[in-house]
Write a structure and sequence with these properties.
The protein contains 10 helices and no strands. The protein is mainly alpha-helical and 299 residues long.
């Protein structure tokens, strides 16, 4: 008889954690469905909705154009600095270091946030509309965000798993090559540079949720919502949100998250809630990634 392999403590912990999330999600869904006739979401808030912004097509094109130009400048600057420091090109991401990824991530998120804040600061009559119309505190917003994460994380995981199965079949048919993981995910699983990993984690959990929600929900979704029904506006903004992450492997999951973030924003009328959901989701995803891969070089 062969000896059985030792139990993997990380695997056991992950399994128990995910089972706990599934159980908690089922309990919350049961509570929400029972409370649905009251118009409340189970944590003490009612559906609010967002008023129309009235942003013109020309003004929307101007802010998107400003964002595109700013992104190109910062990305090219980051590429030049990276090549100067390493002597290698990062056009394809080949050989990109963790600290290089931190630089490119900053060159993505800083323009996203900077352009929106700049437009609101210097053209308040056009872009200065309140992004939050409901007076929710950070504590209330955090409870709402955590509740949505508990309820929807299993569904997001299921969407990602089904998409992975579909992609595997398409690859098997030879229609496409196997798509790679997102570059930050690849680098995180490789490990070795603790400071760089901390930098990537901080960007993913703090800067990215703020910058991306300000633009994709605070500006883009609001613009679409003025012109089309909710699901069309949420779907279109979700597609663009997914595309900007440049990951076919994660496309369906990111699309689902983008639509869910629009739903949360539309329902509660406060940008803090999708920002915190985005932050909690990224933190949980990175935590599970860390535990499941036991990142090399990090004890």
């Amino acid at each position: 008889m062969g000896t059985e392999p030792p139990l993997n403590a990380f695997g056991i912990f992950l399994s128990l954690l995910f089972l706990g999330v599934l159980l908690g999600s089922g309990i919350r869904w049961a509570q929400v469905l029972r409370q649905a006739p009251s118009g409340r979401d189970g944590v003490g808030t009612q559906t609010i909705g967002l008023p129309k912004w009235g942003l013109s097509t020309v003004d929307f094109i101007l802010i998107v154009g400003a964002l595109f130009i700013t992104l190109m400048f910062f990305q090219n600057l980051a590429a030049a600095v990276y090549q100067w420091m390493t002597g290698e090109s990062a056009v394809d991401g080949d050989g990109l270091t963790i600290r290089g990824a931190v630089g490119f991530s900053l060159a993505m998120q800083i323009p996203l946030l900077g352009v929106v804040l700049g437009a609101r600061r210097f053209a308040p009559k056009t872009y200065g509309v309140p992004l939050s119309v409901t007076p929710l505190s950070w504590r209330q917003s955090a409870w709402l965000a955590a509740d949505y994460l508990l309820r929807f994380f299993p569904l997001i995981t299921l969407v990602g798993a089904l998409w992975a199965v579909l992609l595997a079949q398409v690859v098997k048919l030879g229609w496409i090559d196997e798509p790679p993981l997102q570059i930050p995910v690849q680098l995180f699983t490789q490990g070795g540079d603790l400071l760089g990993l901390v930098g990537l984690a901080l960007i993913a959990v703090i800067l990215a949720p703020i910058a991306e929600e300000y633009f994709f929900r605070g500006v883009m979704y609001r613009f679409f919502a003025d012109r089309m029904r909710f699901w069309a506006a949420a779907g279109l903004s979700g597609v663009i949100f997914s595309m900007i992450h440049w990951s076919l492997q994660s496309a369906a999951g990111l699309f689902f998250v983008g639509v869910l973030l629009a739903f949360i924003y539309q329902k509660h009328g406060n940008l803090r809630v999708p920002i915190l959901f985005h932050a909690f989701f990224n933190a949980l995803s990175l935590g599970l990634l860390f535990l499941s891969t036991k990142v090399p070089g990090v004890e």
